[in-house]
UniProtKB/TrEMBL annotation:
Family statement: Belongs to the WD repeat IPI3/WDR18 family.
GO CC terms, sorted: nuclear pre-replicative complex; rixosome complex
Composition bias type Basic and acidic residues, residue spans: 488-498
Family annotation (Gene3D superfamilies): YVTN repeat-like/Quinoprotein amine dehydrogenase (2.130.10.10)
Its job: Component of the RIX1 complex required for processing of ITS2 sequences from 35S pre-rRNA.
Coiled coil (residue ranges): 446-473
Positions of region (Disordered): 488-514
Main location: nucleus
Protein's name according to its UniProt entry: Pre-rRNA-processing protein IPI3
InterPro entries reported in the protein's UniProt record: WD40/YVTN_repeat-like_dom_sf, WD40_repeat_CS, WD40_repeat_dom_sf, WD40_rpt, WDR18/Ipi3/RID3
């Protein structure tokens, strides 16, 4: 099955008019063609959550209805509502963690509910804020829940404390409270990393976007914009983020910049990080810099998102248009106008689900299309409890997905025979023992070792013979040189004596003559 990125969007009629019902739709990100549509929903901003199909489990979509306390549940295998869940009260926002285990919802009175999706158990419900909860986000590892409210506060909640049975009768205490905004919080984006070693972006009506460090529970940098910020989109590598205003302007903020190095080259450095006093004003830049970092859509913006490859910026408008911009050049590449007359309340990108209705891959299993449910069963979802029930929580009846019986599973432990297992164990744990046993059994390793030893012994013998020959040659040369030197010395001595005798005889003859 080929991986294909798709656009996930939710639509709803504008608040000023009572138009047709909205829908949840999937589009091809390259062509804009419609892949699937799930109707009968009017979810507003931050009121749609999706869990992607993975690990041989089908995904699901949750959609909160604004006019009643109803939660619509959809699966990718069916274009109709799979389940309607009656909620304790109307929800203003909803979120699902990455593993699809927990769902959290916020209300207009500042209350937050936390359910387990597989069992429907209401684990906790508490008054988290004084005013409406606008946005909820889980960290990437699902260990913390972050909430933003109209009371300008951002609270970070530890999920483990919210699930603790011993703390059910106590009011939950947040891990930390980020309280530097002065007006309602509009959006939250969580960075990469596990909690608390991660950073968080928050936007507000007070024209600011703030970057927080959860490990130190401190404010790193404040970005001040000329207009209120309603939506955020953060690059997965945390190199930049986009801040969108409702009037149609989108600012690109780079978190790294180039500077001239002392050695004549270019260096990359991070901007900001000085704390509360570090304020970066976007409107202080020159006109050319503004043009490079500003995208003017021309329509009121209702949602934004960055593609999985960080190459495209997707913008949803209140006119029902989806614009696709190239991030490096800010060029408008494509506009999807399928949802004219509706507002794009939610937009995101995801891989095309393998169990998407009408787009079934036959590579998943050899068989008919009707057997798809047996191949990829949807993740189980139970109706959510409206009140906390300690007995149900203690029983904890959770639906689980058993392994697919159609696929043959080989256990590595049982695939070994006893003899092979003992031999391999001895090879790694007792090398000396395996050598002795191998030599005694005449295994191929022992035969090879013997041949190598015989080759080495023959090579040693030949080297010894060559050494003996070389030594003999050396001795012969030494004897020859010594003998020649001795003979030459003797000849010189003899010649000297003969010369002395002749000289003496001449002297004697001269004496006699005188």
């Amino acid at each position: 099955m080929h991986l294909q990125e798709t656009i996930f969007c939710a639509t709803a009629p504008p608040s000023s008019s009572s138009g047709p019902l909205g829908a949840i739709s999937l589009h091809d990100i390259q062509t804009g063609a419609s892949l699937a549509s799930f109707k009968q929903t009017n979810a507003g901003s931050h009121c749609t959550a999706v869990f992607q199909s993975k690990n041989t489990q089908g995904g699901f979509m949750l959609s909160v209805q604004p006019d009643k306390s109803i939660l619509n549940v959809y699966t990718f295998q069916k274009d109709q509502i799979s389940l309607k869940i009656v909620l304790p009260e109307k929800l203003c926002c909803i979120v699902v963690d990455r593993l699809g285990e927990f769902c959290a919802g916020g209300t207009a009175q500042g209350r937050i509910y936390l359910w387990e999706i597989s069992s429907g158990i209401l684990y906790n419900s508490w008054d988290a804020h004084y005013r409406q909860v606008n946005v909820l986000r889980f960290t990437n590892d699902g260990a913390a829940l972050i909430s933003g409210s109209d009371d300008s506060g951002v609270s970070v909640w530890s999920v483990s404390r919210l699930l603790d049975n011993d703390l059910q009768n106590e009011l939950p205490i947040p891990y930390c409270t980020l309280s530097d905004h002065t007006l309602p919080v509009t959006d939250i984006q969580c960075g990469i990393g596990i909690f608390p070693a991660c950073r968080v972006l928050t936007s507000s009506v007070d024209h600011s976007v703030k970057l927080w460090d959860l490990a130190s529970q401190s404010l790193l940098t404040t970005f001040q914009f000329p207009k209120p910020i309603s939506f955020l989109a953060w690059d997965v590598t945390e190199r930049m983020f986009f801040a969108a205003s409702a009037d149609g302007s989108i600012h690109q903020m780079n978190l790294f910049r180039q500077r001239d190095s002392k050695f004549g080259g270019q260096a990359i450095e991070a901007i900001g990080g000085a704390g509360v006093t570090d304020i970066i004003r976007v409107d202080d830049d020159s006109r050319e810099a503004k043009k490079k970092r500003l995208i003017s859509v021309g329509y009121p913006i209702s949602s934004i998102a960055i593609s999985l490859t960080s190459a495209l910026l997707l913008v949803g408008t209140t006119e029902g248009l989806i614009h696709s911009y190239d991030i490096p050049s800010h060029q408008l590449l494509r506009t999807i106008s399928t949802h004219k007359g509706l507002s794009i309340t939610t937009i995101a990108t995801m891989l095309k689900p393998p169990d998407l209705i009408g787009h079934i891959s036959l590579e998943l299993r050899v068989g008919a299309v009707s057997d798809l449910k047996d191949t990829i069963p949807p993740k189980p979802i139970m109706p959510f409890q409206r009140m906390r029930d300690p007995k149900t929580r203690d029983a904890h009846d959770v639906s689980m997905l058993l392994p697919n019986q159609n696929k043959t599973y080989h256990d590595e432990a049982t695939a070994y025979t006893t003899e092979e297992f003992l031999r391999d164990h001895a090879f790694f744990v007792q090398p000396s023992l395996v050598k002795s046993t191998a030599s005694s059994r005449g295994s191929p390793d022992a035969i090879m070792l013997k041949s190598q030893v015989s080759e080495l012994e023959s090579e040693v013998e030949s080297l010894r013979g060559q050494l003996v020959k070389a030594k003999g040659v050396n001795d012969t040369m030494w004897d020859t040189v010594v003998q020649r030197l001795v003979v030459q010395d003797k000849d010189k001595e003899a010649a000297g004596k003969d010369g002395e005798d002749e000289e003496g005889q001449r002297r004697r003859k001269r004496g006699r003559g005188n």
